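Reopening: NADH dehydrogenase (ubiquinone) complex I, assembly factor 6 still failing for me.
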Amino acid sequence: MAAAAMAVAGLRQAPSHRLVRAAGALGGQPWLREGRAAVAAGWSRPEPGGEVQYCAELLRKRDYEGFLCSLLLPAESRTSAFALRAFNVELAQIKDSITQKTTGLMRMQFWRKAVEDIYCDNPPHQPVAVALWRAVKRHNLTKMWFTKIIDEREKNLDDRAYRNIQELETYAENTQSALLYLTLEMLGVRDIHADHAASHIGKAHGIVTCLRATPYHSARRKVVLPMDICMLHGVSQEDFIRGKQEKNVRDVIYDIASQAHIHLEHARSFRKKVPAKAYPAFYCTVALDAYLYNIRKVDFNIFHPSLQRRSTLLPLYLYIRSWKKTY
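Support: Ran it again with your exact input. Result attached.
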């Protein structure tokens, strides 16, 4: 795979105190357990009117980068973004919280039925579902994207390695890109160039997420990295499980990371054609750039401890990107 320059320019400006304060402002709140359906779906019910708080707190704990990005959206879209991202978290954590696929399929079915009910104006009494219903009503969100996300997450319950990079990109398109399409709709953007950028950024996001999860999966004797790239460099799944750091292992990571970088560069190649109103949907690129820069610094050693630490400067970098009005 062609070499790709992956350095990210240094950012050295003052932070937004508003963003930094907001990132830590949401405190915990006790939720009441309710019913068998709640247990099956893995949720708990908030106090009346607390759905937004519930979604924001879920994001802060489970998707901190998504939480920060949502804070930078316009006020009229922010609570809807919390709901959308919380929906994604609910689906994403199913895979890691089950021991049998049947249980995962039941939880996916709950959300499939929840989406159907949301579009019939009869959402289940579940905080994320209620918040999502309000978002759908407010922004007239496209049902197809929710269905694609559920379908792809359900297929991914099999927990097997991707056969090739294209299969990983398809998964990313139907999950991360779909989230971005919905975010664009929340911003009132329906533009072919914005959609094109969202497709590439979503694919980059999915690839980076796969890389970031590799140490976690390897510790549990699982490897999901594309098999075609592993075979190209003569690397086995056992090499990752044992945490090997030989050059051929790092070459696998380099090739996969380079593909993410190529998608980001492609999304930026036609930035001038993308409406500025769409830019806030793409602030997730800040975290992607940072990860690709950091993995390059450690010579593509996927197991380096520095890659597993949360960046304390992320709020600063996000603010600067929003101030520059770019992605």
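The first helix runs from residue 17 to 23. If you still see a failure, please send the error message rather than a screenshot.
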